[in-house]
Amino acid sequence: MSTIMQRGIHYLQRLNTANVPAALIEKGQNRVIDASLTLIRERAKLKGELVRALGGVVASTSLLGVPLGHNSSFLQGPAFAPPRIREAIWCGSTNSSTEEGKELNDPRVLTDVGDVPVQEIRDCGVEDDRLMNVISESVKLVMEEDPLRPLVLGGDHSISFPVVRAVSEKLGGPVDILHLDAHPDIYDAFEGNKYSHASSFARIMEGGYARRLLQVGLRSITNEGREQGKRFGVEQYEMRTFSRDRHILENLKLGDGVKGVYVSVDVDCLDPAFAPGVSHIEPGGLSFRDVLNILHNLQADVVAADVVEFNPQRDTVDGMTAMVAAKLVRELTAKISK
């Protein structure tokens, strides 16, 4: 457990020991939440005003970090990913152009509204029900500033539930989801935690926030994962049949009849030869070019996306997986912005 998380838990223990009145604690929690949302709101307003002033934009990507790691069933390192991804995006070893020719240094293509202060909120004793609401409200604040569209930097995969919920509620209907992952993350409540990173898509599907869910890259799936997939009508593509399914997956057309398409990329969808810096190392995954071919050829109006489960604490010395996560963000930015 990280020093930061230990400090937060010890702080709560001191509050309980001191018998601080519950009403006083709740008042403090509300102030911290209000301040957190105000920070995101004002940053989003500033970036939205800038993009609108420059003009000529239908959709513009805006980064939102959600450094949450405590719902991971193994390691909590993904909480430290957003700043590492940002650093890699702007690393001088490469340029600001995406493969499709979008320029990331153009604010009409990419802006950044900062991070939801997850640990500061948790340090005040805020439980996950309220924390998930804060994440959802933060996403909605970004979406209120047309033409901004959120690209969320995780964090573990539990963040996808509040983000997708916010996108669906804000748009007024379900979305189609393209989910790239080694795991289906559709357990009812993994290890008793309904907000586990292994349960995020169960929450999404039971909430009616997605019409279609396509899961690609699966190679660590249990009987429960398959049964839950059948229960929710999920289209699950396992790596053992990828060579057969490749033509389908590299020519996807999604979103007709719904409010748009959401893309969720768990970095462990990639074979660990390409991305060793993940909590759950599963050999036999997609190549990086496989993933890019799927994303580049996707015919869809991508209204939001996330990149999750990069764990800097397991990355190689030269930060290879950080660069991989950054490249995913760059190419998703090109897909969203127009």
From TrEMBL:
Identify the species of origin: Cephalotus follicularis (Albany pitcher plant)
> Which Gene Ontology molecular-function terms are recorded?
agmatinase activity; arginase activity; metal ion binding
- One Pfam assignment: Arginase
Identify the residues that bind Mn(2+): 157, 181, 183, 185, 266, 268
**Database matches in InterPro entries:** Ureohydrolase (IPR006035), Ureohydrolase_dom_sf (IPR023696), Ureohydrolase_Mn_BS (IPR020855)
Please report which protein family the annotation says this sequence is part of. Answer: Belongs to the arginase family. Agmatinase subfamily.
| Pathway where it operates | Nitrogen metabolism; urea cycle; L-ornithine and urea from L-arginine: step 1/1
What is this protein identified as?
arginase
User: What's its top-level EC category?
Assistant: hydrolase
Query: Which SUPFAM superfamilies does this entry report, sorted A to Z?
Result: Arginase/deacetylase
* Chemical reaction(s) catalysed: L-arginine + H2O = urea + L-ornithine
